[in-house]
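Methods — Computational structure assignment.
A single polypeptide chain was analysed. Its primary sequence is given first, followed by the predicted tertiary structure written as structure tokens.
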Amino acid sequence: MKPDHGAGTLNAWINSARPSFSEQDLVSALEDMTRSTTAADLSARDRDFWDKNSGIAADHAAVAIASAANAAARLVFDASALTAAEVAERMHMSASTIRHYKSARKLYSYLVNGKLAFPQWQFNDTGDKSIPSLEDVLGALPDDLHPQAVAGFFLTPQPDLALNGEFASAKSWLEAGGSKKVVVDLAEGLAAGY
């Protein structure tokens, strides 16, 4: 059973659920999302093809819901990221060393409101070490890959990576001692567009 988080308004939900972001943060994310996207109306023939073959509804309500879900997911993703100072404290290093690691692609970060954000997926459970071979895999990924796509690459189970008969994510594979070459090859394939 889902918890009841309010009377159907955003403010009621935020007050009840107490997420790590505010209503203003969500509005800012939605404004950023609408500024950075452009959409073209499809012709009737193309819309029909889209509806029959994409598996994604193209009606305005479905697009609005998907857009809001994307903005909320990005907001939660950003809110859970660590600052350079937080990473430095966890890894027992200076913040300048952490920024150097970012520049050398030994750690992954992206900008949120002009500040470096280090996603937590790249660290072990205690947060004091990066996952094995992170630098090698990051070096093979495209520099301009969206932060959620990078997270998806590391966290989504892949058919090419199996542990105990189950598909594994790149993170799980590397943490279990799997070959970094297989993951680097997947990253190079992504960079090459296949």
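Note: The chain has a mean pLDDT of 84.
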